């Protein structure tokens, strides 16, 4: 196995806590079943991911309101109250990131599915995002994980070799797509598990 020299972090769910439940659990007065129905049928994850790939938030919102006018108020909350869905950093992972950033043996970048319109909010809120060598934001590139082109774009942009690179993501679908390109992977579950997996791959922390 080639020595790992490059580490690619996902952001949401790995380093940053983002969850629409922070808004909609209050909106639906704690009714999780109703909230899940809304995410399954109205403001779905597929719909949100379309904006992660560069589709304009305002246009997406108006189209969804036209489809479901009876739920207009709830739909407009999705991006209208988006900042309230952005939680804190995931401290344990940020600690691991900081160790890796201090190690001259590794180049550390990020690859995130994130709307280009909302990503500046994260940049302002989380200082550690400015420490990466670079960040590939799906909304800026008009594509997203798990499509192969965004992984290849990341490798090419930083002149990484797939077999010398490690990708960390909490979404198994995204992990499998990276692995198909020959990139080493870790499926993120929590900071403690990540640390064990990094050590198992001979990553020096």
Question: How would you characterize this protein structure?
Answer:
With 205 residues, this protein is an alpha/beta fold. The chain has two domains: 6-17 and 88-200, HAD superfamily/HAD-like (Rossmann fold, 3-Layer(aba) Sandwich), CATH 3.40.50.1000; 19-86. The chain contains twelve helices and seven strands. The strands form two sheets. Strands 5-4-1-6-7 form a five-stranded parallel sheet, sandwiched between helices. The protein has a two-stranded antiparallel ribbon with strand order 2-3. Strand 4, helix 8 (119-125) and strand 5 form a beta-alpha-beta unit. The protein is elongated and about 55 Å long. The two termini are 19 Å apart. The mean pLDDT is 97.
TL;DR?
With 205 residues, this protein is an alpha/beta fold.
Number of strands: 7
Bin the helical content: 40-55%
CATH class of the largest domain: Alpha Beta
Which class of secondary structure composition applies to the elements? alpha/beta
């Amino acid at each position: 196995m080639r020595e790992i020299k490059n580490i690619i972090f996902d952001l949401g769910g790995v380093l940053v806590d983002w969850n629409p439940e922070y808004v909609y659990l209050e909106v639906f007065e704690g009714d999780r079943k109703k909230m899940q129905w809304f995410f399954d049928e109205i403001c779905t994850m597929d719909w949100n991911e379309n904006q992660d790939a560069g589709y304009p938030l305002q246009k997406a919102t108006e189209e969804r309101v036209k489809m479901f006018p009876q739920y207009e108020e709830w739909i407009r909350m999705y991006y209208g109250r988006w900042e309230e869905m952005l939680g804190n950093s995931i401290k344990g992972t940020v600690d691991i990131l900081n160790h890796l950033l201090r190690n001259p043996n590794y180049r550390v970048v990020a690859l995130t599915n994130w709307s280009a319109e909302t990503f500046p909010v994260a940049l302002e809120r989380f200082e550690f995002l400015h420490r990466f060598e670079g960040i590939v934001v799906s909304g800026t590139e008009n594509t997203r994980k798990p499509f192969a082109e965004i992984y290849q774009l990341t490798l090419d942009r930083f002149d990484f070799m797939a077999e010398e690179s490690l990708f960390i993501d909490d979404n198994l679908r995204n992990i499998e797509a990276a692995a198909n390109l020959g990139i080493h992977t870790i499926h993120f579950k929590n900071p403690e598990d990540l640390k064990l997996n990094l050590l198992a791959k001979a990553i020096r922390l």
